[in-house]
Amino acid sequence: MEQEIKISIIMPVYKVERFLRRAIESVQAQTLRNFELLLVDDGSPDRSGTICDEYASRDSRIHVIHEKNKGAAMARNAAMDIATGEYICFMDADDWVEPTMLEDMVHLAKRDQASLVITGFYIDTWYSDSRYVTTDFICEDMVFHRREDFRRNAYRLFDKNMLYSPWNKLFSAQYLKERNLRFPDTFWDDFPFVLSVIRDIERVTVSSRQYYHFIRMREESETALWRPNMYEKREEEHQWMMELYSYWKIADEKSQEMIARRYIERFIGCLENLTNPKCTLSLKDKRQEVRRMLASPHVSWSLRLARPRSAMMRCMLVPVRMKNVSLILLEARIITFVKTRNSRLFAKLKAGR
User: Fold this and answer.
1) Contacts (Cβ under 8 Å, ≥6 apart) of 42
2) Rounded Cα gap, residues 30 and 99, in angstroms
3) 294-331 per-position pLDDT tens digit
4) N- to C-terminal Cα separation, the chain
5) Distance (Å) of CA 169 to CA 99, 206, 212
6) How many other C-beta atoms are found inside a 10 Å radius of the C-beta of residue 228?
7) Residues of the chain with pLDDT under 50
8) Which of these, 142, 140, 144, 137, lies nearest to 167 by C-alpha position?
9) pTM of the shown model
10) Distance between CA atoms of 348 and 342, rounded to whole angstroms?
C-alpha cells in the first residue's frame, strides 16, 4: 500500500526558524514513508527559507517553494496547485505531529472510502521557555456514509472543536480539485476553507486518536495581540455558520443551541479584546464599543438559546444579560489579568468553558 499511496503535506513557512526543524523532522519520522512535503517559504525574513533548503537537499521527498510574502492562505494555495498526492494534509511550521498520523489516517480513508478524515489533537500552551500545559481535544469515533447523517451530527463536531482548523484532517485531493476549493485571502482563513470543504461533503470518518500538536506561545498568541476588527470578524463567522445551516436545511434545537453558544462564547472574547494591554481605545471609546456590540440582535438571540456548559460561563454572561457596561468592562479586565499573568490557568479555564 505504501508504494501506491502518496500524501502531500503542505506547510507554509514564515518566521519559524525556532520551531521549523522539529516540524520537518516529525514528518520525516512518519511510519508511512511515501509522501511529499511541500514547504512554502512565504518570504520569511529569518533563516527559515535556508533551513527548508537544507532539508530538501538531503531528502528528495521535500520540495521548497520560495515566494514573496503573501500570507499563509496564498502559500497553501500555491502548494495545492502542484501537489501530486492522492491525499492532502496541512501543517503549520511551528507545530509537530505523532509518527503514525499519516499511516493511520490513510488507513481510515481507504477503509471507509472517506473524502475527509478528522482526528483529535493537542494544544500545547507554553507559559515559559521550558513549561507548558497540554489540552486534549477528542471526539468519539464516527463514520458517516451519507451527507444527511453528517449534517445532522455536525453540531457535535463543532462542539468538540473538530471543524475549525485544517491541520487535524486528511483531505481527498480529488475532492478538493473537483470543487476548486482554496483558502480565501482573508484574516483567519482556516475556518472558511473548512466550511467550504464540509458544505457538500458526503463520506466523513472521525477518529478519537490524537496526532497533531498545535503550539500556542503565551507571548505570541495570548497576550501580545489586540485585534481592532475582532468583533467584525466574529460577526462574519457567525453569518457563515448561519448560512451553512440554512443551506443544509438543518434547524433542530441542538444545532441551533450550538450556534448560539458558540457565538456568545466568542462574544465574551471580543469584550475581553477591548481590555487587552495593547488596545489603544480610550475608556470612553471602549464603553461606546461595548454598547455598539450589545446592540447586535445576535446577542439577544444567543442569550435566549445558548445553554452554557459551565458555571463559569453562566456567571460571565450575567453582566451581558444585564447590559451593564461597567460590569462588562470589569469582567473583561479580570479575564485579561488572568490571561496575562497566568496563561496556564487561562488555558484550563478556556478549555472548560
Assistant:
1) 12, 13, 14, 67, 69, 70, 71, 72, 74, 75
2) 4
3) 999 999 999 999 999 899 999 999 999 999 999 999 99
4) 43
5) 15, 9, 9
6) 10
7) 1-2, 218, 220-223
8) 137
9) 0.91
10) 10
